[in-house]
């Protein structure tokens, strides 16, 4: 599934910062990872700590696999 080209401000993304509404930014794209929280191999705390902000550095620092990168498109 691909995004629809919508543009969000950081302020808009930062409003989505709860376990029931969890957005984050990776490489200038916004992802709604709410449904992925319970399935994240590192636990939901990892995603929740990056919720509502730019999580690019966090994502890259962990060294995610190509498979993990491909999964982003779902969100």
From TrEMBL:
<dbReference type="InterPro" id="IPR050668">
    <property type="entry name" value="Cytochrome_b5"/>
</dbReference>
<keyword id="KW-1133">Transmembrane helix</keyword>
<dbReference type="InterPro" id="IPR036400">
    <property type="entry name" value="Cyt_B5-like_heme/steroid_sf"/>
</dbReference>
<keyword id="KW-0479">Metal-binding</keyword>
<dbReference type="InterPro" id="IPR001199">
    <property type="entry name" value="Cyt_B5-like_heme/steroid-bd"/>
</dbReference>
<dbReference type="Pfam" id="PF00173">
    <property type="entry name" value="Cyt-b5"/>
</dbReference>
<keyword id="KW-0249">Electron transport</keyword>
<feature type="region of interest" description="Disordered">
    <location>
        <begin position="55"/>
        <end position="75"/>
    </location>
</feature>
<keyword id="KW-0349">Heme</keyword>
<keyword id="KW-0256">Endoplasmic reticulum</keyword>
<dbReference type="InterPro" id="IPR018506">
    <property type="entry name" value="Cyt_B5_heme-BS"/>
</dbReference>
<keyword id="KW-0472">Membrane</keyword>
<feature type="compositionally biased region" description="Basic and acidic residues">
    <location>
        <begin position="61"/>
        <end position="75"/>
    </location>
</feature>
<keyword id="KW-0813">Transport</keyword>
<feature type="domain" description="Cytochrome b5 heme-binding">
    <location>
        <begin position="5"/>
        <end position="75"/>
    </location>
</feature>
<keyword id="KW-0408">Iron</keyword>
<protein>
    <recommendedName>
        <fullName>Cytochrome b5 heme-binding domain-containing protein</fullName>
    </recommendedName>
</protein>
<keyword id="KW-0812">Transmembrane</keyword>
<comment type="similarity">
    <text>Belongs to the cytochrome b5 family.</text>
</comment>
